[in-house]
């Protein structure tokens, strides 16, 4: 009986050892063409699986010599072989010789583009197929929808969905893929509409919609659908529970996460490594490292991924010693730490500001073969920068390959962090001379250096380079330019950049507002504030503080009060201690001391040192000794070891021309005592 697999291997080995010529094989093709076809198809399949490009090319040559290149199945197999062997260029050449009606080859090519992350090309090829008048198959739609999903192309995905409804009858699997596409493209509501219309739903469909809500952080909907799924007697599987845990993780909902965990235990779900990683990750990101540790300790087996999740949790909670104990456990259990392990441990070192531990991790990185891993070594540079090891950072930079702009940016960032700005500028221009393709991170880092030094000449040169390289339309770079120009005193240039932005983020609004306020442009600061508020921009605490600080700089009391009292109702923010302190300072400077007292009494918590200090400074300006006495005593009760209350009260007395005052003498005596104690403590 003829066996294509056996013949294929005989043929390949014969070709390699040159025992059989092509002429001999062509003789076989005359006597038994179907046998040759089977051998070649089996050969293409095998080389595709082995990713053996050399053998694949040999077989492709035999296909041509045997006159089988027009065969639809054969030509599709050739395209597929080149794609699986990672040779997209030859796959494209082979595809050009495929008969236009060969939809299988089109499907393979669309899938191939997606495999290579060339999603735009995959989608474009699909529309070429449609224009050619060839009817796409279910496989075609699955491949192109994957491209739309991975590229998060909602517009293209919607158009493909419309074409699908015209071409073929949908089914549960296709509907599930469509729901997943809408969810990934940020349109979960449209996915839900499609889900609700489905006459029949299997566990895959339920998992996709629950997973979509999980990714969106909509935990209530995810839990609701989980309950509905059970009501309809659809049994949850491993993916269902992982999606629910992901929903809890994304929503940072510890309570619901604990409920899901309890449900799993009640239903007899065995907590394997697969579930364990999700549970530990959920507990870690919801801030309960203790619960994560309990799950971790009870697991029957652990892999490096699970260890990494636990180490990341310890890093997050700044429990450095526990993280390093896990590194020892990984090695004692015969496992090898991977790049994620080392990235997490470097984060621990940064959090602890421990140069010695950082050196220890660096040594382990080299011993485990990650000494040339770009991402790991960039993080090593960052670790040394933030742990005070600038010399070591430069030594690492000089040793490792410098073909990545991220590596250069890490070293430039190190110099900026240590305020060695000239070295940062020199390295930036050296990087530019190396003809590396600069990215957002590089520009933002060097613009930060320009801003901190007030180096307008350097900033102008960088801005010119940004225009030349086409990064002017990216919001991060534009915001950094605004901040740089404002801090360099060139507010008009900052405003020009601001006005040309297609959209604004918190940094651009805050930088522009602060720049105007600090340079005394009161009217312009108010204009920016009004534009921001009227434009429906979602404020955060930092932006709100910038608005109040701007009002403080330009003395706009009424506007500040109006905004401050609207923070809770109008913007959903409860003013923090920093917001109160800013208002106290503003009212104090304006002489509204009665309102200062009212504001301090209205604080939801006891005023902190910042608020009391601002109030005491205001008393000095306006000579209110009674209020100054009350505030200084309050400040002393909040921070008894601080000399600020006494120094400020001394200034108040001096400004009020009170020389022989019992109060000031008493407090000055306490200042001297505290100063002596402090000196003793730190000596």
UniProtKB/TrEMBL annotation:
Pfam families in UniProt: PPR, PPR_2
UniProt key word Lipoprotein: no
Signal peptide range: none
SUPFAM superfamilies in the record: TPR-like (SSF48452)
Alphabetically ordered keywords of this record: Repeat
Classification via InterPro entries: PPR_At4g14850-like_plant, PPR_rpt, TPR-like_helical_dom_sf
GO biological process, one term: RNA modification
Single GO MF descriptor: RNA binding
Top-level taxon of the source organism: Eukaryota
GO CC terms: mitochondrion
Family: Belongs to the PPR family. PCMP-E subfamily.
Protein name: Pentatricopeptide repeat-containing protein
